Amino acid sequence: MDPAGRRVLDVGCGTGFFTDYYLGRGAQVTGLDITSASIERLRARFPRASFVLADVSEASLEERYDVVNAFDVLYHITDDDRWGAAVRNLAAAVAPGGVLLVTDLFSRLDRLAEHNRVRPLDAYEDLLSAAGLEITGLYPTHVLLNRELGLFRFLNRLPGGLLATDRVLLRLGFGDSPAANKLLVAARAAT
């Protein structure tokens, strides 16, 4: 999808990586983050964008967007009720003909760390379907990034090498692993 001229909600905008990506391609961007430091920095860095300081599980999002993304965000919500509220809020923010983009493992693995909890694909499917969205794709994105690497943690100091290794692992089929991160695409029908 070409983001030019589209309304984008960048949830968990953090350092502004995806805000910058979308702005550079002509999108109208609203960033949402739970930390005031991120919002303050991003407002100064990207005056063409709008920013909202909010917890996505509590945010009442009145505007509708063509693209709503939550990359590496939802598994940080460890409380199931708050997670469900966040998914429902994101789904409600998707305009007719729009898409929701979410990354997670979408598997039944136990907690990988105290600060995150992955949910299975069917938990997402239930909430998204009830909100009128249809999952149209699930794509592996990486195998090693965002993982404890043990003896190989030195790779974190070589992000280009880590990314290249991930690309090779994906080509070899390791993206189907329950521990591989994936991108879920869910769409709302145009009216």
UniProtKB/TrEMBL annotation:
Q: Name one Pfam family in it.
A: Methyltransf_23
Q: Which GO terms describe its biological process?
A: methylation
Keyword Metal-binding in annotation: no
Q: Which CDD domains match?
A: AdoMet_MTases
Q: Which InterPro entries match?
A: SAM-dependent_MTases_sf
* SUPFAM superfamilies tied to this protein: S-adenosyl-L-methionine-dependent methyltransferases (SSF53335)
Q: Which UniProt keywords apply?
A: Methyltransferase, Transferase
Q: Name one GO molecular function term.
A: methyltransferase activity
Q: Which Gene3D superfamilies match?
A: Vaccinia Virus protein VP39 (3.40.50.150)
Q: What is this protein called?
A: Class I SAM-dependent methyltransferase
